[in-house]
TrEMBL record:
Species the sequence originates in: Alitibacter langaaensis DSM 22999
Domain of life, source organism: Bacteria
GO process terms (BP): proteolysis
Region forming the signal peptide: none
Protein name: Proteasome lid subunit RPN8/RPN11
GO CC, alphabetical: proteasome complex
Single GO term (MF): cysteine-type peptidase activity
Length: 247
């Protein structure tokens, strides 16, 4: 990021305090420029809203590459509403907090992803689904066929990251993580239950997709896990993303 651009954005954010600032980063020719917008939200200290006119004005100046806003009284993480807005806007988000800019890349569509182990795989899909619902889970470096090298990456991390194993697997609900054991001694594949006996998952050499949870996948199920704080999340956001790319 160009230092001059960063300084301009941080300066604008400080000038707008205690209100949240907002604006766009636009590629104008070969130059990245910041175009500030008016925050027209009712509660400007905790939210931001950009008018359609400001969006059109920014769009007329070049290619919009990122949406900028600030958290003058908050943490350097996107709120659930921010994540919903990012999904609709389909833009990277640049968040100003404590005089620093934190960049949150846009989440690619959950369906139709090309498989690339360690970059775009079943765990990536798991993380992104929950990110859209309002939860952040760490990434971890994982070699291909890690389960053949004595690692147990799913079972070693599920409880640590706030999940508990279901005793009654017939009580599966939307958002539950289904761990599957496919040609391995440990669970090495994850799917998300999305309702109506359907799961979302990403298998090697295949595009990410929805599948009926029966037959092959049911046979290879190792365990089902529920996020303990699931009631604080909003699974309608990732489900809406799925619906959007199914239409």
């Amino acid at each position: 990021m160009l230092q001059k651009l960063k300084e301009k954005i941080v300066s604008h954010a400080k000038h707008q305090e205690p209100h949240e600032c907002c604006g766009f980063v636009v590629l104008k020719g070969d130059e990245m420029v910041f175009i500030p917008c008016k925050n027209q939200a009712e509660d400007k200290e905790n939210h931001f809203e950009i008018s359609p006119e400001d969006f059109l004005q920014a769009n007329s100046q070049g290619k919009i590459t990122a949406l900028v806003h600030s958290h003058p009284n908050g943490e350097p993480v996107l709120s659930l509403l921010d994540r919903q807005t990012q999904l609709v806007a389909d833009l990277d988000f640049w968040l100003v907090c404590n005089d620093e800019i934190h960049i949150f890349p846009k989440i690619p569509p959950l369906l139709g992803r090309e498989f690339n182990h360690g970059v775009m795989d079943c765990y990536t899909l798991f993380r992104d689904f929950y990110y859209l619902a309002g939860a952040d889970f760490p990434d971890f470096e994982r070699d291909d066929y890690w389960w053949e090298d004595g690692f147990n990456l799913y079972l070693d991390n599920m409880a640590t990251h706030g999940f508990e194993r279901l005793i009654d697997e017939s009580a599966v609900q939307i958002g539950d993580v289904i761990l599957m054991q496919v040609g391995a001694d440990v669970p090495n594949h994850a799917a998300i239950y999305i309702g109506d006996q359907m799961v979302l998952h990403h298998s090697p050499r295949r595009l990410s997709k929805r599948d009926l949870y029966d037959g092959y996948w049911f046979k290879h199920t190792h365990s089902i896990w529920r996020f303990k704080q699931w009631s604080k999340l909003d699974f309608t956001v990732p489900l809406n993303s799925l619906a959007l790319h199914l239409s």
